[in-house]
Amino acid sequence: MKARRTLRAETITLAHGAGGKAMRDLIDDVFVGGFANDTLAQLEDQARFDLDGLLKEGEKLAMTTDSYVVDPLFFPGGDIGKLAVAGTVNDLAVGGAKPLYLSCGMIIEEGLPVETLRRVVASMKATADAAGAQIVTGDTKVVHKGAADKLFINTAGVGVIPKGVEIAAHRARPDDVVVINGFIGDHGAAIADARGEMALESNIETDCQALNGLIEAMLAVCPDIHCMRDATRGGVATVLNEFAQSSQAAIHVDEAAIPVRPEVRGLSEILGLDPLYLANEGKLVAVIPAGCAEAVLQTMRAHPAGEHSARIGRVGESPAGTVILKTGFGGERIVDMLVGEQLPRIC
């Protein structure tokens, strides 16, 4: 399905959100043409699915939603559109779900160049296609100039969880192994650098990527993964604390085992940030039974999204609800939940 080039305007106006012909031209051209699938092309007020088809994929329905307000819209390795789709896909996938359908709500500031919107939509389409998902329904709102910052996106996602998969934050057990699929803090560092406020020079790119293919491979060798989450806002430290508190277990982590790029570590030191709390948009933390740890790690490292996967810790019994970091100096310290916000508007 090719884009219908019915939109002549070069910038978004309030008329494009008013419900008339200008809005219809915007939807037909940029969104229906850009996302290009038969379900969206029906232009009903809802997307409709065959329940028999969903049941063939699994036994439980999973649903998630998130909003994206990142500044700037485009940054090294990604943009707000890629971020929105990958983030929603990952929120489904870390629960064991196969992502199927997404919605897209756009809040657009008056004056946004139409070409900017086209670039974002094309990025969303490419990311959804790569993840095997479709954007099937949506909404558009245009607000007065100054009432928003260029573009905000809300997405929701629906997926299906196969029979026998039960991934939950409360399932960490003593002797379980903690693994991660690569370098931490890339996204937070890339956004900090892209804002250009520090006059720093680096080549750090976001790690933004859909993880459902990697997770599917992990589940194939270990269907009984106990806990898994993507480490977005609040970083790896926050995810580990969520596992420890929900499971009432102690999670022991080795600082030396956690992959951090030298560039990210250096930028963090300059800005007074801790990579453990920096945002990621393509990193998962999983707690798995010790018996399948080696097989899972080998599988992760064989996947493009997990080449630098590492075993970073283990689960113990006490002190319950606590994350304990073995430092590079040989001592130990408690890693708490993030207090406040290291960097605003990173996703």
CATH class of the largest domain: Alpha Beta
Tally of DSSP helical segments: 10
What is the share of helical residues? 25-40%
CATH-defined architecture of the largest domain: Alpha-Beta Complex
Unreliable runs? none
- Biggest β-sheet: strands ordered side by side in the sheet: 8-10-7-11-9-12-13
Please state the CA-atom Rg, rounded to the nearest Å.
21 Å
Strand content: 15-25%
Number of domains: 2
For this structure, what is the CATH homologous superfamily of the largest domain? PurM-like C-terminal domain
Structural class of the secondary structure composition? alpha+beta
Textual characterization of the structure:
The protein is built from 10 helices and 13 strands. It is of the alpha+beta class. The chain folds into 2 domains: 14-161, 60s Ribosomal Protein L30, Chain: A (2-Layer Sandwich); 169-334, Phosphoribosyl-aminoimidazole Synthetase, Chain A, domain 2 (Alpha-Beta Complex), CATH 3.90.650.10. The strands form 3 sheets. Strands 8-10-7-11-9-12-13 form a 7-stranded mixed sheet, with helices on one face. It has a 4-stranded mixed sheet with strand order 1-6-4-5. It has a two-stranded antiparallel sheet with strand order 2-3. A hairpin with a 5-residue loop joins strand 12 and strand 13. The radius of gyration is 21 Å and the shape is globular.
